Amino acid sequence: MKRRAALAAGALAVAGVLTGCAFGGGGGTSSSQEPSAEGPVTLTFQSLAFQDTTIAATKEIVDSWNKDHPDITVKLQQGSWDNVHDQLVTQFQGGTAPDIIHDESADIAGFANQGYLADLKPYLSDDVVNAVSKDVWSTVTAQDGSVVAAPTLMQTYVVFANTDAFAAAGVPLPDGKELSWDDFQALAKKLTADGKYGIGWGLKSPTATVMNLALGFGGTFFDNNGGSSTIHVGDAELEVPKRINEMTYSDKSIDPVSLTQSGSDVLPGFFDGSYAMYVGGNYVAQQLTESAPKGFHWAVLPPLAGSEGTMQAANPQTMSVAAESKHVKQAAEFIDYFMNPTNQAKLAEGDWLIPASAPAREQVAKDTEGKNGWSAMLASGESLTAAPFQSAANYPQWKDQYATPSLQKFLANNISADDLKKQLTDGWAAVGG
Amino acid sequence: MSTSTLTRPVPPVAPPKRRRRNTGPNGGGRDAWLLVLPALIPVVLFSVYPLMQGILLGFTDSKAGLNAVVSFNGLENYARLAGNELFWNSFRIGLVWAFGVTALQFLASLGLALLLNLDLKFRGVARTLALVPWAMPPVVIAIMWRLMLNPSYGPINEAMRTVGFPGDINWLGSFSTALPAVIVVGVWAGMPQTTITLLAGLQNVPAELHEAAAIDGAGVLHRFWHVTLPALRPIIVAITTLDLIWNFNSFALVFVLTAGGPGGQTMLPMLFAYNEAFRYGEFGYAAAMGNVMVIVISVFLFLYLRGQARSRLS
Amino acid sequence: MRQTTTTAAPMASGFAARRIGRPLQYVALACYVVFLGFPLLFLLLTAFKSSQELLSPNPTFLPESWNFDNFAGAIDKANLIRAATNSLIVAVLTTIIVTLISLPAAYALARFRTKLRTIATGWILLSQVFPFILIIIPLFLVLKQIGLINNLLGLVLVYTVWSLPFALWMLQGYVAGIPVELEEAGAMDGGSRLLILRRIVLPLLAPGLVATSLFTFIGSWNEFFFALVLIQDPKLQTLPLTLARFVGAEGQVQLGQLAAASLLATIPSLVFFAIIQRRLTSGLLSGAVKG
């Protein structure tokens, strides 16, 4: 008895402490901008750049900023796309978030709602604001109208072709402004023979790809009204997974194993000629130029077009400032500098991505003269539109827990399209809409 | 042990037989406290206290958010959990994993321990190899097996191709093979502790018992069943119990191998709770999951140990 | 050690059984050796293969030429040196602290029969049952309050606490193995308690102390989960974290480098383990298991 009483007392005491210091309460050290007393300031910038060229470009930009701004030093810190979400959750919670945060728009909606990201609107210059389309700005605007990030680079999903494999099969490379899904499908069939597949497609994480390409068929998945989002999964939304499934199991023109692998795992198969085509983010072009074996020739095919056109989601990479940063103003100034066309073009060329800023796109077109697939890639960037999924707050959780598993199952031919539809819809309800 | 966290030594299965009485000339009680204090303070501060808080956290709505307010919400988390199909699914996977790994680990280790206990040549090699996984970081074990199981360049598929089987299985990436593959890795990683413990047990089985049985004309199998196993029993119970707990709570190995994929097929409860807390910011809810895990594992342990104790008495 | 030879091969007595059984036993042993050893061998060989060779459609088992580029590449690319330094700092500090505080406590637990002993044993067993998810969230909070999030010292603190149960348990086993009569004899010779401890107990305890500290070292060196949650700054990452990131790293797969880095990371624990393994399998167990 005595022991039990002691335990209970202990529990109560702990409870007091627990509620007292409210796990997650801001700790009280830093509440946003104190108009920084003049004096040198150091900011940390967590960059997710992962290709050598982009890492170098980022470093160059930071160095030149530091040279021009002796009183605002930016310290570069390397993060990774693989764990950025978990890492930010922990960092925000622990009050150790970097001042300047690199992420992507679909990932930050939740953080914005939780109040972790500062409003950049007061700090961004007109040049930067006007360089980016309204549509793209909308992907980084929170429900309360605050601008929680500056959009930098965007990717599209493109089809890479092994031109030698095309030649060997006597198939001409498609040209023109777009490549319809029907033609794409026919092409893949023609290139499938002798144990080789027309397409290797690393779809281990299929959700983002499907969300993006679905727009070409008018599949939007979500309706956002004010604070909440509702889901609708109809024929338009299911068209892309259905087609991939059909190509894999009826046409047998996609290697089913590749669907279970990551993009980088599939790349060796593209290099050694097992696949004539490879679908992936346009940044893969950088890896093709850098590490393809000698004598490997490739091209970027025209953008894939569904019934509605070549639209894909503008899901830009983003630069945000932590709301708890002590130097929001200075951090925003750096972002403004980071956004200038020269810098953005430099980064875009390093990563083979499309700048959100129009002047930067022009710069890239000029620098690269449209070679190495750049014209096709920049063209695909023209039809990037804001997609509702980016603003749906619970999208990351829905994606992990429901969309990715059910899409994986569907692409493994384990469940029917109706099951997929049901699981996607029920999943949204389960994560609380 | 394998996976969850700090590498664990073989559990000292029973306390040393020779108990010493209080030998201090001047009582010793206070001395004892003084000596223990330096260890006690950090344990209380950084383990007992957080644990208590963790348990309580499971009854709050703590969530990520700037200046989020935490309040107790009673059993709400548990009501929500009851309806969370994904969590229960992960629980089922966790049990399949924990029991699967523990059972296979036990059988494989018992076999190996019996062999090592024989006077075979090269047993030193096998013994050394059996110990290596113990020293390896779980992360490295996971990396190694990812290389082994890779569909395109992994030697396992390569070997299957050579023998004429279809060699294009993505072991860790396809729905039907992911969990079995992960279990095999779990067995590999956890064999040392079990083997060594069982071996030590075997070496303590009095040889006279065997001799007596042999004189009575008992065969090898008969002697194994009626002499060796009963003598090993306490050790078997202890090591399988610990294996079960460790496996159920394991994290690093599967985190690196599959991160719970494909489609949640290998989403162990620890991974699930980790995601809930550190991906979706649901701290209270994740702690509630931890509480449920404690209860379930305790129930299993209770049933198992009671079952063992009963059959020992009868 | 004393137990290893006396009862070897109790099962194989009986000449007939031996003749049929032996070949089978060797086959079984060979299977175990392959199962346990092949992955290690493969990791080793992969580390020496060039990236062209690894991606070739017809891989050979042995590397065509042994090259060390992967090791250089891994050290350079994955910041292995920095990560290893972090791991070393954490593991060494943890080991020192654990040894210092568990030594007196282990002595007390082994020599004084108080309630403490029961409580300690209970805690050691109980601490195994609780999943780390329950501890990590509040621990995160506690460490945040004292500014030790994202800090190697914070990690040292956590590792200390979580290595302590087993270190204590191992050590008190060793203390219990030292005959009390020796201490009593020392006391009769008029030695002070401290002197007895230093002159008599400590030297006898040395091997056990070494084993315990190396074990603590290996545990901290290998640990992943706490580091994953508590360390956010890439500069402070420990080896397991760095390696896990390296696998996940988007872009090109550098299998050879990954294998090389994994090997390098394993060497310290392997070496230490080799030193203590005899002791683990014989000393500790034959003492402890013989209940």
Automatic annotation (TrEMBL), chain A:
<feature type="signal peptide">
    <location>
        <begin position="1"/>
        <end position="24"/>
    </location>
</feature>
<dbReference type="Pfam" id="PF01547">
    <property type="entry name" value="SBP_bac_1"/>
</dbReference>
<dbReference type="InterPro" id="IPR006059">
    <property type="entry name" value="SBP"/>
</dbReference>
<dbReference type="GO" id="GO:1901982">
    <property type="term" value="F:maltose binding"/>
</dbReference>
<dbReference type="GO" id="GO:0042956">
    <property type="term" value="P:maltodextrin transmembrane transport"/>
</dbReference>
<keyword id="KW-0813">Transport</keyword>
<protein>
    <submittedName>
        <fullName>Sugar ABC transporter substrate-binding protein</fullName>
    </submittedName>
</protein>
<keyword id="KW-0732">Signal</keyword>
<dbReference type="GO" id="GO:0015768">
    <property type="term" value="P:maltose transport"/>
</dbReference>
<comment type="similarity">
    <text>Belongs to the bacterial solute-binding protein 1 family.</text>
</comment>
<dbReference type="GO" id="GO:0055052">
    <property type="term" value="C:ATP-binding cassette (ABC) transporter complex, substrate-binding subunit-containing"/>
</dbReference>
